[in-house]
């Protein structure tokens, strides 16, 4: 996993600032009529306040002596000067992915692309194909459903964070074919019924239902494959992070190493 950089560091300083943001919604006027009676009024204005916390930590890498400015937003990471940290960051943009305070045993994830939570949206979407397949069977309504289904089908993730998702392109073409069968089948059945061909009308419905089933099946497989890529990457990240932590020297040696090293050019790690 070359796209990650691991650090072992000692906290030099820790500054935390809290601030609030307020969201205002609602308001405005309304009017409606029932049996000739007009009712009008205004909507109440509502607000919601949220407290945020921004943390700035200066830490010193125990292996290189380089000082790192670590910026955290709404993480609630607890540390003080002298604590020893293990952190993993994205090598490309410097974004931190996981922090572990070796002095307290606490750990924080950013819930980024290396986290298991990255797979959650794909796991949630994998069952939506069944509903879309059913809507494709309903004449007239399936025109609208077909447009949305096509957009979502073409939007399947072919790669995730630079990693190719296997088989998604093939499943996408199969999905489109199954969707077309589900879409056209009901109309073909109506035409055959009007022409006095009940067998072909029934056969068209069978093909349509089978197409709707396959559409949902291929949709689920596409998002399941993308979710598996996320989970496999998260598992590899967990293993790499755990392996790096096992290489840490005793606490006393780490603290001593930090105090003996000179400062190097500082670097930034964003939130």
Give a description of the structure:
There is one protein chain. This protein has helices at 120-125, 128-135, 141-154, 168-194, 198-246, 251-260; strands at 4-26, 29-34, 37-42, 45-61, 66-73, 84-90, 96-101, 107-109, 159-160, 163-164, 264-269. The chain has two domains: 4-102 and 259-269, no CATH class; 119-230, no CATH class. It contains six helices and eleven strands. It is elongated. The strands form three sheets. Strands 8-7-6-1-4-5-11 form a seven-stranded mixed sheet. It has a two-stranded antiparallel sheet with strand order 2-3. The chain has a two-stranded antiparallel ribbon with strand order 9-10. The longest helix is centred in the last third of the chain and has 49 residues, at 198-246. With 271 residues, the chain is an alpha+beta fold. It is 42% helix and 32% strand. Mean pLDDT is 78; it is low at 252-271. Strand 6 and strand 7 form a beta hairpin.
List the helices and strands and how they pair.
Layout: E1 4-26, E2 29-34, E3 37-42, E4 45-61, E5 66-73, E6 84-90, E7 96-101, E8 107-109, H1 120-125, H2 128-135, H3 141-154, E9 159-160, E10 163-164, H4 168-194, H5 198-246, H6 251-260, E11 264-269
Parallel strand pairs: 5-11
Antiparallel strand pairs: 1-4, 1-6, 2-3, 4-5, 6-7, 7-8, 9-10
Helix pairs in contact: 2-5, 3-4, 4-5
Report the portion of residues in β strands: 25-35%
Largest sheet: 7 strands, mixed
Residues in helix, %: 40-55%
Count of DSSP-assigned helices: 6
The number of strands is 11
Task: Please list the strands of the largest sheet in the order they lie side by side.
Answer: 8-7-6-1-4-5-11
| SSE sequence, one letter per element | EEEEEEEEHHHEEHHHE
Class by alpha and beta content: alpha+beta
Question: How many domains comprise the coordinates?
Answer: 2
């Amino acid at each position: 996993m070359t796209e990650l950089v691991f650090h072992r560091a000692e906290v030099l300083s820790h500054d935390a600032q809290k601030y609030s943001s307020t969201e205002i919604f609602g308001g405005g006027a309304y009017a409606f009529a029932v049996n000739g009676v007009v009712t009008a009024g205004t909507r109440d204005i509502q607000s919601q306040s949220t407290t945020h916390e921004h943390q700035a930590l200066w830490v010193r890498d125990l292996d290189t002596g380089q000082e790192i400015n670590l910026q955290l937003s709404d993480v609630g990471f607890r540390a003080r000067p002298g604590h020893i940290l293990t952190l993993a960051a994205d090598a490309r943009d410097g974004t931190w992915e996981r922090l572990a305070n070796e002095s307290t045993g606490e750990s924080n994830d950013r819930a980024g692309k290396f986290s298991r939570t990255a797979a959650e949206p794909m796991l949630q979407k994998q069952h939506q194909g069944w509903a879309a397949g059913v809507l494709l069977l309903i004449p007239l309504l399936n025109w609208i459903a077909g447009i949305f289904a096509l957009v979502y089908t073409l939007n399947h993730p072919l790669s995730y964070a630079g990693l190719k998702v296997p088989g998604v392109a093939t499943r996408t073409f199969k999905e489109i074919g199954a969707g077309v069968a589900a879409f056209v089948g009901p109309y073909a059945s109506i035409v055959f019924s009007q022409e006095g061909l009940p067998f072909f009308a029934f056969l068209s419905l069978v093909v349509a239902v089978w197409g709707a089933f396959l559409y949902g099946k291929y949709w689920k497989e596409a998002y399941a494959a993308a979710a598996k890529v996320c989970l496999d990457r998260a598992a590899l990240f967990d293993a790499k992070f755990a392996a790096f932590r096992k290489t840490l020297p005793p606490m006393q040696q780490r603290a001593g190493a930090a105090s003996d090293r000179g400062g190097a050019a500082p670097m930034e790690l964003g939130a």
